[in-house]
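Page 47, continued from p. 46.
Same chain as before, 292 aa.
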Amino acid sequence: MSLRWFFFLVVLMPMALIGALILLGIKLAVPEIGRDYVIRVPLGDIAEIGLPDVAGPREDNLPLVVIDAGHGGHDPGAVGGDSEQPIREKDVVLGIALKLREQLLDQGGIRVALTREGDTFLSLSERPAIARRLEADLFVSIHADSAGEEDTAAGASIYTLSERATSAAAARYARRENDADRLNGLEIEGEDDAVNAILVELSQRRAKEEALELAGLIAREGQTLLNFHPQTIRGADLVVLRTPDMPSVLFEAGFLTNPSEADQLASEEGQEAAAESLARAIQVYFVRQGAR
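Result:
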């Protein structure tokens, strides 16, 4: 047998066979050990996060707001009502988000995108990532709160990013929301380590200041439409607010564990009031930004 044929039979043919088995995903039994083994080759990310459509005027110089309806899919969020007619956070906040988009588009001069328009699940890190990839000017995440067994807690509130929560309740809320990524075995992703820490800090400081301004406007514009929690504006280290290059707020529409408030939030009127408060505040915010 020539050296060429020996090399083909001993080296190349086994390599070709192993490659075919890998591509076909066929397992090779190993009786001596008593287990099945398969060689797995990491292929990396199959696809990037899909970006939603941007509604509104086509001028790229107009401000873009990304609205994030919290939870969705297998994650219902907080649940109120009764067992026969549960009021789920994911449905309530989607209703508010859709109404907010409609009102912003009716006002004109603002482009709008939603992280989700149906009952779909997004991880916490995907939500602000969508806004950043769209180069949004503002990120608004909408949620509804839960107070556990306590059914007297009531009122809307606005969260902005804070490394140290402004209250124990805010800290507990941050832990509960951040853990949502682990409901389906998903892990929370951190920021890109390659980003220069100093530039991120400076950018985030400005974003936090503008987020606080928007939070104050939401409280002001909604005072005749909504019932606010005594501690209206709070700080918490929430994953969805970790956007160093844009102001981000999380709007808590109210407590679904409060029966009367849950009914209000589930109604068309309640959702319209929440959307109108946000729309007014966003409009004033961009007017102020343009005046600077």
